[in-house]
Amino acid sequence: MRLSEQPLFSEETIQARVRELAAEISLDYAGKPLVLVSVLKGAAVFASDLLRSLVIPAELEFLRAKSYAGTQSAGTILLHHVPGEELKNKDVLLIEDILDTGETIAAVLEKLRAHKPVSLAVCVLLDKPHRRAADISARYTGFRLNPRTSSDELFVVGYGLDYDEAYRGLRAIYTLHETR
Questions:
Q1: Edge-to-edge strand list for the sheet holding 140-144
Q2: Strand residues in 41-100 grouped as ranges (E)
Q3: Fewer CB near the last or first residue (10 Å), C or N of the chain?
Q4: Is the pLDDT of residue 153 over 90?
Q5: Which pLDDT tens digit goes with each residue over 61-118?
Q6: Quick check: 163 and 1 in contact, CB under 8 A?
């Protein structure tokens, strides 16, 4: 696998969009007890930057969801450390790095609903609407990814997103390509 020479989204572009999302979220949840639930590991960087950009108080919780092996979904979703009582009677915003098929987010939302939050919404850094298999949408979206052709599917890394645990620490988002 090789990394693209130029980022798909630069560090500056990402940070500007995070600030815009934080401003919108701050307006929507002003005066409400907000809990951000970040999905580990991919959304941790995004959730941290988003939390620091909010102008309202918010709690931060984490859960672990794993569904990928390499560039393909493994077909099963493993959830660990799902918050419980911390969510009851509060507005909850699930923070995820990428909304792809929607199956992982659907499974996480089902678990979170069981803890009786006042409201439950989704915020994603990246959205691939053309890949959706589950009826899931995000209330807040950083960037939408649409391939130019059906064979031009993008696999992205950086800013928390990985390929087999590599590339998470990149400050920008890049595409990853198979070497031929």
A1: 72-80, 58-69, 34-40, 91-99, 119-127, 140-144
A2: 58-69, 72-80, 91-99
A3: C
A4: no
A5: 998 887 655 555 556 766 656 666 778 999 999 999 999 989 989 989 998 999 999 9
A6: yes
Collapsed DSSP state (helix, strand, coil) of residue 166: strand
Phi, psi of 32 (to 5 degrees): -115, 145
From 100, 127, 162, 164, the catalytic residue: 100
Give which of 112, 119, 158, 166 is closest to 139, Cα–Cα: 119
Strands 2-3 and 174-177: antiparallel
Collapsing DSSP states into helix, strand and coil, what is residue 160? coil
The amino acid at 172: A
Structure tokens at 67: 């569904």
**Residue 95 and residue 83 in contact, taking contact as beta carbons nearer than 8 Å:** no
Residue 26, phi then psi, degrees to nearest 5: -60, -40
162 catalytic? Reply is no
The DSSP string of 108-159 is: HHHHHHTT--SEEEEEEEEE-GGG--SS---SEEEEE---SSTT---EEEBT
Stated pTM of the model: 0.89
What's the confidence (pLDDT) of residue 64?
A: 86
